[in-house]
Amino acid sequence: MKFIHTADLHIDQPFANVTTDDAGFQQELQQVNHAVLKKIVNQCIEESVDFLLVVGDTFHQARSSIYTQEFIMNEFKRLEEYGIQVIMSFGNHDYYTENRYWFEWPENVTLFTKEEVTTKVITLKNNEAVAISGFSYEHQWITQDKALDYPERDLDTTYHIGLYHGEIGSTGQYAPFLVSELNPRYDYWALGHIHKSEKISTHPLAIYPGIPQGHTKKEKNGQGIVLVEVESNQVDYRFIPVSIVGFETIEMTLKEDLERHLYLSKLIAGMAQKDWACPINFVTVVVKPVTGQLMSELIAEKEEILHYLQTKLLQQTAGNIWLMDLVIESVETDKLIMGFDASLIDDLSAPFAKKDEFYKLAKDILQQPVIAANIQFDEEDVKLMVQESTQLVKDKMIFKNEASQ
167: buried, middle or exposed (CB in 10 Å: 19+, 13-18, 0-12)? Predict the structure, then answer.
């Protein structure tokens, strides 16, 4: 038995923090999610797999566009031409609602549509039978642990696989489960929901494939899709990268002995000459000035410098680089207004980097119905927001201090 396991395509999701007016680049980005699914389908065909497992959040939202629906149906039909089956469940983003889709699912597609755990049995080309147990979300949240609802291994089939879109833990909003609850007699547990690629168990083999294509800079740890082969109780797997957009952070040091007009060209050359891994790269540059004076000048004109570099890099690299952000690293010896050290801001902000404290502070906003229904922050989100806010405060205070001298 040979199959590919993917999850969390989020195919309607736009890329964050892209503000360019470059119509060509915008159009290219709009095609990325579709191109990634095409790569997955092509990989299925090249590897001659028996089936494709799609474990939730194929769509980024429950009500997806007609064009996206048609595209996905057509890609699955391509697999049908090669006798490749598709087994698909729905997650918390694209929770299933009957009559929401404008096209008929191809005959090679088997869907899980209920929140109750059910088992589907498919037959491979060699007449081996595979039992696949799973569930789908019918609402945005499932607070119940579903792992213990899975049946014992089906002894009338050659293989048994579990599909599970959820989070690890004893409590949560996304079908929380404990790893120890996964039936060890199953041949494979195909997981979804967590965007980081991770094998969470060896016996039984249970894998989060991670997000095939990240859409924010925190989603850079996905390794793609998982190719799995099972033969004589031996299970082998490997990750296959399929992303088109990569997220990178690099550091560049600017020395004050350079003439001013050379700073911008040095930044452009440093990025344009780098050997990037992906066709499109979203880059954050951490600029390390060697003096407080240079740092203050960069902070004062940061937004204009960033916009200029974004435009020039898109032109000079034919859309290979989108500069997401310039992070101006503080010079350690610099002081804030009134002589306070910059580390004071770090100390003051540190408590709010904890999710519980952040939610207490922002509860009036986060409890608004529209926000509560559509926005959830995890520990990494909170940490990143506090870091960026802390740096912004320090930048403003350092600049004011320099300007007053």
Answer: middle
Average pLDDT rounded to a whole number, residues 307-333: 86
Let me know: does 94 contact 60? Beta carbons within 8 Å: yes
* pLDDT classification of 367: cutoffs 50, 70, 90: low
Question: Domain-by-domain residue ranges, the chain?
Answer: 2-240, 245-404
| Tokens linked to 86 | 């598709």
CATH number among 3.30.70.141, 1.10.3210.10, 3.50.50.60, 3.60.21.10, domain 2-240 = 3.60.21.10
Pairing type for strands 159-165 and 129-134 reads parallel
Tokens for 51? 């089936």
Single-letter code of the amino acid located at 258? L
pLDDT tens for 82-119 read 999 999 999 999 999 988 889 999 999 999 999 999 99
